[in-house]
Amino acid sequence: MTDGIVPDSSLNKLSEDIEITIGVETVSVSYRDRFERLKPVVYISKSETNPIIIAVGDSEAPAEPHIQVALFDSSVSLPKSLDKGAALERFFAYILRDLLGLSVLKLLACPRVILKGADSLDSILCGYQKSLLRTAMIEAGARECVFDS
Predict the structure, then answer these.
(1) Taking the chain, what is the end-to-end CA distance rounded to the nearest angstrom?
(2) For the domain 8-148, what is the CATH superfamily, name and number?
(3) Domain spans of the chain, in order of start
(4) What is d(CA 1, CA 9) in angstroms, rounded to the nearest whole number?
(5) How many whole angstroms separate alpha carbon 60 and alpha carbon 72?
(6) Separation CA 11–CA 68 (nearest Å)
(7) What would the pLDDT profile of 10-67 be if each residue is shown by its tens digit?
(8) Is this prediction's pTM over 0.90?
């Protein structure tokens, strides 16, 4: 360790990879001995002044008035005050923190995320999918995000 910074090779030894396969209808997550599958959807409050993401994935639909938005459906749009990047960040944060149970302390040496299937979103995200997915994943707490075709 130099100057309080943990070298990447040391972080690789401290953490394990999370493998996420992205699909239009399903997102599959593999971490250690766990395998989870969920829908790439977010539930957004119907507030006109301040719509917020109130639930994600296969969670039970919220009781309060909401809009369900499929993240990889190009015919569906988000409210003007939310963008695709913010919705993806919340979705990935749910995967890292809630679904896999990675606490803030564990996120200090967060596993590297390997994303598969990003190219399947090319027609929806017009070639920007890797940049958008990487940024959202890093903002959600991943240490590193790499793509595997």
Answers:
(1) 33
(2) ATPase, nucleotide binding domain (3.30.420.40)
(3) 8-148
(4) 10
(5) 20
(6) 37
(7) 555 456 789 999 999 999 999 888 899 999 999 988 877 778 888 888 877 788 888 8
(8) no
